[in-house]
């Protein structure tokens, strides 16, 4: 948190920018721009409310230099996420033109039963994320393919994205290789595997309920018939050369992530392998991209580079496939980068003027009894995800704030680490301007508001931790010496 430059900011002034931001964002989405709100309107809303917060800071004698320093620190924490976003855009482009994504969709339509598809999507995403320790890596690889398969089966995008995100964040939450899992354990100063074992008490019921809900939804979901699937598969084979060898590329990326290779390096290697595969397996596709009859070296290079950096649309005779076979490359991620930077400006100024500290202290003063501490921590984590817009800060800051409060109540530190994960890690994806929400919406090409009602695991997890606290289930206390 920022240093105190003056007396604590009154709660009214601390809440004012947040309330105005919520009103403006809601107006942008519901009344004016709808799904296109993140193309600029929401970014400006965040910057405008950052200006309002700065005016409140001037009123409270906060130096402008302190606000800029806080903004700089916030933006610095997201530099890795921004680079990952750009490389995910490049990977999606080469995996499209190389036929990797079409191949995964083709085989998926043959293998997966529409009735159980949603439940299977949760399980597959859970396994990949658990093994890799990365929710972002999961959605950028198998998640993209599952979205394509779901569209081919006629299942709504929101449901499929909700299933993918639920599974991805389950694995990310309990994997010993996950950065958030290690971070939450470190903030509570407990052993990593002790933290994971204790999390299972709330996580296992949450993911079980999630899978059951998706299985039930699958039975009531109207899907396209077998003829439609055959038409889609025919459309794929008419445009791309389908070859099982192409699946070695995503497999290689998953292995690299498992081996703890830096995500940026893994994504870069995946992008380059996709480009090589495109030249080997899809020369006709490359010809269509650059508009030539004979593919020369320069033409192949230009087609691959176009897919990496810009928009590529591969046209077929099937309207469903035309929606699937498009990619924005790195350029397609720029609106999301803009959104993240704007959110960091707002969050940084709010932190510098003491608004976040004031709101958190008010919550802590209202905490009564054991449940009050759990509830305050949960609300604070979600609040930080919605204001600071970064899941790491939503774990670190509440972890520091409430560490002593848990001790004072005689609660073991694993209660804190579990609550940080149940409410900090998983809810980042529910806010369109948070790095998690912005990233997944762009990668899965599904608006946050569309998948939010179906991100059951992410919605259930904070409620589960409050239920356990309220009913005093599995609440471990400090041993008395």
What features would you describe in this structure?
The chain has helices at 11-33, 41-59, 64-77, 79-97, 100-111, 117-132, 135-153, 157-174, 179-188, 192-219, 226-239, 248-258, 263-281, 283-290, 297-309, 319-324, 334-352, 355-366, 369-387, 393-408, 413-425, 435-444, 448-451, 456-471; strands at 312-313, 326-327. With 481 residues, the chain is an all-alpha fold. The protein folds into two domains: 11-79 and 333-471, no CATH class; 86-328, no CATH class. Helix 1 (11-33) runs antiparallel to helix 2 and helix 5 (100-111) packs across helix 7. Residues 1-6 have low confidence and may be disordered.
Helix content: over 70%
| Structural classification | mainly alpha
Strand content bin: under 5%
The tally of beta strands, per DSSP, is: 2
Order of helices and strands: HHHHHHHHHHHHHHHEHEHHHHHHHH
**Tell me, what's the shape?**
globular
Number of helices: 24
Strand order of the largest sheet: 1-2
**Could you report the average pLDDT, rounded to the nearest whole number?**
88
The radius of gyration computed from the alpha-carbon positions, rounded to a whole number of angstroms, is 23 Å
Number of domains: 2
Gap between N and C termini: 34 Å
Which stretches are low in confidence, meaning pLDDT under 50 for 5 or more residues running?
1-6
Largest sheet: 2 strands, antiparallel
């Amino acid at each position: 948190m920022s240093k105190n430059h003056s007396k604590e900011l009154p709660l009214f002034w601390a809440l004012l920018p947040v309330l105005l931001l919520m009103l403006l964002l809601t107006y942008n989405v519901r009344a004016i721009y709808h799904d296109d709100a993140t193309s600029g309107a929401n970014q400006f809303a965040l910057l405008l409310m950052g200006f309002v917060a700065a005016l409140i800071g001037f009123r409270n004698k906060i130096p402008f230099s302190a606000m800029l320093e806080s903004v700089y620190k916030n933006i610095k924490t997201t530099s890795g996420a921004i680079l990952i976003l750009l490389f995910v855009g490049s990977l999606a482009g080469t995996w499209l033109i190389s036929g990797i994504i079409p191949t995964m969709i083709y085989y998926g339509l043959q293998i997966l039963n529409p009735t159980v598809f949603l439940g299977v999507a949760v399980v597959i995403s859970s396994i990949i994320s658990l093994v890799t320790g990365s929710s972002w890596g999961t959605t950028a690889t198998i998640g993209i393919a599952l979205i394509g398969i779901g569209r081919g089966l006629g299942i709504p995008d929101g449901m499929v994205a909700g299933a993918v995100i639920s599974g991805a964040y389950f694995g990310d939450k309990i994997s010993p290789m996950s950065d958030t899992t290690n971070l939450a354990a470190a903030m509570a100063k407990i052993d990593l595997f002790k933290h994971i074992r204790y999390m299972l008490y709330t996580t296992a019921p949450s993911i079980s309920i999630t899978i059951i809900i998706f299985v039930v939804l699958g039975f009531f979901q109207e899907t396209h018939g077998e003829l439609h699937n055959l038409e889609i598969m025919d459309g794929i084979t008419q445009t791309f050369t389908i070859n099982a060898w192409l699946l070695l590329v995503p497999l290689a990326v998953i292995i690299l992530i498992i081996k703890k290779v830096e995500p940026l390096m893994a994504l870069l290697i995946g992008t380059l392998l996709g480009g090589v595969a495109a030249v080997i397996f899809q020369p006709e596709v490359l010809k269509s991209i650059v508009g030539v009859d004979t593919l020369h070296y320069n033409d192949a290079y230009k087609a691959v580079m176009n897919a990496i950096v810009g928009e590529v649309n591969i046209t077929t005779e099937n309207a469903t496939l035309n929606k699937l076979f498009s990619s924005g490359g790195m350029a397609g991620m720029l609106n999301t980068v803009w959104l993240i930077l704007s959110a960091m400006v707002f969050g940084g100024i709010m932190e510098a003027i003491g608004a976040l500290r004031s709101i958190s202290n008010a919550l802590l003063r209202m905490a009564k009894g054991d449940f009050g501490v759990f509830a305050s921590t949960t609300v604070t984590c979600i609040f930080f995800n919605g204001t600071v817009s970064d899941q790491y800060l939503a774990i670190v800051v509440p972890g520091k704030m409430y560490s002593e409060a848990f001790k004072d109540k005689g609660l073991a530190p694993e209660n804190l680490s579990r609550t940080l994960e149940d409410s900090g890690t998983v809810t980042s994806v529910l806010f369109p301007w948070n790095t998690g929400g912005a990233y997944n919406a762009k990668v899965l090409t599904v608006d946050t508001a569309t998948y939010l009602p179906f991100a059951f695991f992410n919605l259930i997890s904070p409620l589960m931790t409050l239920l356990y606290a309220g009913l005093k289930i599995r609440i471990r206390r400090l041993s008395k010496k």
